[in-house]
Amino acid sequence: MGNKKKKSQADTADKYDLYQRSVQEPSCEVIFFNRIFSKRYGRKPLLLREDFCGTSAVCCAWVKSRSDRRAIGVDLDPEPIQWCIENNFLGLKDEQRQRIEFRIDDVRTDAPDRADIVAAQNFSFFCFQTRDALRGYFQAARNHLADEGLFVLDMMGGYETFEEDRTERTKKDGFTYLWEQKRFDPITHHCKYHIHFKFPDGSKLKKAFTYEWRMWMIPEVTELLLEAGFSEAEVYWEGTDKDGDGDGVFRKRSHAESDPSWIAYLVGVK
Ligand SMILES: C[S@@+](CC[C@H](N)C(=O)[O-])C[C@H]1O[C@@H](n2cnc3c(N)ncnc32)[C@H](O)[C@@H]1O
What is the domain extent for residue 202? Predict the structure, then answer.
């Protein structure tokens, strides 16, 4: 009695909520998918397949954006999908929830989906470590697209992403997000990352998420998209504001200036 330890902010933190608030902007993804698809095909994309969906934030934003849109979320791990049902679904109407379908499966498993957009966000495809494995995933993604369909990936890179132990801190409401580049192997491009969170009471949620990835380069990925059967592989590069920072507007480009740390979209056209 009396020695009950007061719980710290880290003890009561919800890692998926912190993750979503730190690294995801689902409404921006929806706007981007809509823009590039409408421009190419002259109509709105309706069926989205979100590979590596995790908490399926993009699926939720997608079905909210139009009443005739459907989404399929695919992830190996049932835990973030269950978190989505218990948390993200609270922000959806019943009929919106019914337009989302989940698959707890490997993204490479053959499925009858013929989506307008297949999306793989937050560098998730970096989990594939060899050209054969990545090409195999790209072939599966292509098979999950309708004849008029776009495969949208995002990538990070730049020479700062080769540095070890560099930690970026972004202060958010009530917590700090830390991205640690623990290991980068220049021979294999194998890399290890951790996401940590820090709280105003001094407590920390260490290694909330860990990733063992291969740091792919844009030319490797565009070549593999074409090898997997895509008819075109496009790169959308971010513009800059007057201070030289990324402005969040991505335009199709064939060349870009050297940049220490960039994020880009790659698009495979079926
Ligand atoms: C970096 S998280 C991405 C979550 C979310 N898409 C985002 O944009 O933030 C990677 C997710 O991919 C899932 N994953 C890893 N390998 C997979 C595979 N082969 N098939 C399906 N899901 C996989 C993990 O379970 C994890 O939820």
Answer: 159-213
Question: What does the pLDDT look like over 184-242, one tens digit per residue?
Answer: 999 999 999 999 999 999 999 999 999 999 999 999 999 999 999 999 999 999 998 88
Task: Determine what percent of the chain is predicted with pLDDT higher than 90.
Answer: 83
How far is C-alpha 114 from the geometric centre of its chain's CA atoms?
20
Based on the fold, state whether residues 80 and 151 are members of the same structural domain: yes
Residue 252 C-alpha from the chain's centroid: 19
> Rounded distance, CA 66 to CA 107, Å?
25
For residue 38, what are its two tokens? 């409408």
Tell which one of 55, 76, 113, 134 to mutate to probe ligand 1, the residue whose CB is within 8 A of the most ligand atoms: 76
Tokens representing residue 156 in the block: 């990070």
What is residue 141's predicted lDDT score, i.e. its pLDDT? 98
Residue 232's H or E segment, with its range, is strand 232-240
Over 70: is that where the pLDDT of 158 sits? yes
User: Do 72 and 182 sit in the same domain of this protein?
Assistant: no
Digit-coded pLDDT (tens) for 69-128? 999 999 999 999 999 999 999 999 999 999 999 999 999 999 999 999 999 999 999 999
Contact 61/26 with Cβ under 8 angstroms? Answer: yes
The packing angle between helices 131-143 and 218-227, to 10°, is 50
Please report the atom of ligand 1 found closest to the CA of residue 106: 20
Nearest CA to ligand 1 atom 14: 52
Ligand 1 centroid vs 4 CA: distance in angstroms? 38
| 11 assigned to some structural domain | no
Q: Report if pTM > 0.90.
A: yes
Domain termination site, one of 167, 186, 213:
213
